[in-house]
Amino acid sequence: MKNNKSNNSYSNDHLFYEILVRIFTVLHVADLAKASMVCKAWNVASRAPELWKTLDLNELGMDLPLRPYAWFGEHSSKKMTQILKYASSLGGENISCLIFNYYVYLTNAHLISIAERTPNLKMLVLPITGNISKFGVETAMRSWRNIESITITEMFKNVNFFEVVGKYCKNIVRLKFTCSFEKGQAEGIVKYIPNLRTLIIRNVMVSMTGLCHVLNSLEHLEVVNLCHCLLTDLLDGSFRIYYIRDLQKRVNFSGELTVCNESSCLPSTNRLEE
């Protein structure tokens, strides 16, 4: 009789847990942190691994201004620190994808704090603004040795960044650029991340010289996406624009090259028809 009651109790508790987890899947990060404080059962459910595969800081349940330096200042910094602390406490080792809000102002303390608590991270999407030193990047990447994919913004395009990534992140195979792609970044990739397989550069200006260097140097590169990009170079003081046919003449790349193939694509000059 006691065994039956015990089994029924376990069954009910498990059902309650599954219901809570399903409800929690629709909550924002901030709301999930609040829910974890209600009671022990809610706290346990809020730590379910399936809730924390992706930590998307675009979904905080708050109104964020869509502009650079939106979270700049002591008050905003403390708020971000608190959010990262709660999220990493609940998700921790289960977090494999971290997406920062594009306009969040990131500091060394923020980056290091979340890195130390998410050792199994595979994918990282960085914000556009902040104040991150080489020490901050190095400390974070030392914790993120298993990372495979990084989305790079203007703040992180310094060659030192690629040096640190190459030093600690031996599994990196995918890079995406949301900032201009210049010769310096190309040289950094070739030197420090030679095993790159996927390179995505979209909606930005791209150095023709740098791009050719990457395509001709990386033996393991399989996929390159150049949609909505402007291929350019500064030669003898003159600004020159290139077409995809110019690129194809200069490189020996047998992988998958994705470019704009519709005449309606006004921002780019790399259409196949040209």
Structure, described:
The protein contains 10 helices and 13 strands. It is α/β, with parallel strands linked by helices. The chain has 3 domains: 1-48, no CATH class; 52-172, Leucine-rich repeat, LRR (right-handed beta-alpha superhelix) (Alpha-Beta Horseshoe); 203-274, no CATH class. Strands 1-2-4-6-7-8-10-13 form an 8-stranded parallel sheet, with no helix packed on it. Strand 6, helix 7 and strand 7 (174-177) form a beta-alpha-beta unit. The protein is elongated. The chain starts with a helix and ends in a 16-residue tail after the last strand. Residues 4-10 have low confidence and may be disordered. Residues 9-55 form the F-box domain.
List keywords for this structure.
single chain, 274 residues, alpha/beta, Leucine-rich repeat, LRR (right-handed beta-alpha superhelix), 3 domains, 8-stranded parallel sheet, 3-stranded mixed sheet, 10 helices, 13 strands, elongated, LRR_dom_sf
Uncertain residue segments: 4-10
Order of helix and strand elements from N to C terminus? HHHEHEEHEEHEHEHEEHEEEHE
Q: Determine Rg (CA atoms, Å).
A: 23 Å
Strand content: 15-25%
Helical proportion?
A: 40-55%
Distance linking N and C termini: 80 Å
Specify the overall morphology. Answer: elongated
CATH architecture of the largest domain: Alpha-Beta Horseshoe
| Class of secondary structure makeup | alpha/beta
